[in-house]
Amino acid sequence: MFGCLVAGRLVQTDAVQVSPDKFVFNLPDYESVNHVVVFMLGTVPFPAGTGGAVYFSFPDPASGGPVWQLLGFITNEKPSAIFKISGLRGGEGGAHPFGMMAASSLSPSVAQVGVSVEALDQLAQQMPVSSAAVATVDSFLLFTQKMLDSLYNFAASFAVSQAQMAPNPSETFVPSGCLLKWYENFQRRMSQNPNFWKN
Question: What range(s) does the Hikeshi-like N-terminal domain occupy (predicted)?
């Protein structure tokens, strides 16, 4: 029903079903993991009106017990999600539906990713750990920045010094410094207010 993906590792599809509505993946050497992707395999959808709360558990350095933190959720409409786990801290766990059932005799370097099937109403009320959110950049903004980089690099490839210019009355020349100044101004405005172009 679920899969778990970590960069540089094989995809895990062998979730352990610890109860009828709870599934767990073991994540060895979790200290070297920055992000984890949890997704539905597409073989079995969630029952109507339900989704999956995604939790991350790692051994607390102080107590040795598992610390469970809510990362977010997946649904039939949103069948995959990526979460940042490198910024999570021990001792900051919250309420979770797994109890001690999933933490049976794991080594200190093994973490767990848990999926709990819950009602969509309940998922909407839960508050994930803020450090698990992956920063997103507006796709239009990203496209615009890449397009402008490309335009400047293309135009700069035709640059010639004034001494190298051959007279050509049919062409108009724009100083490359003018384009560079505009581009730097655009970048400065984007860094101050990423949404300025929407106004």
Answer: 6-132
* Same domain for 95 and 6: yes
Tokens (6 digits) for 51: 């989704």
Q: How far apart are CA 52 and CA 26, in angstroms?
A: 17
Give dist(CA 149, CA 166) in Å, integer.
27
β-bridge mates for residue 111, sequence order = 27
Angle at 26 between CA 21 and CA 29, to 5 degrees: 155
Residue 171 lies in a domain: yes
Question: Which amino acid type is present at position 30?
Answer: Y
Q: Are residues 98 and 175 in the same domain?
A: no
Within 10 Å of residue 137's Cβ, how many Cβ atoms? 10
pTM over 0.70: no
Is residue 103 over pLDDT 60?
A: no
Owning domain of residue 183: 136-192
Let me know whether 98 and 148 are in one domain.
no
Q: 50 - beta bridge partners?
A: 119
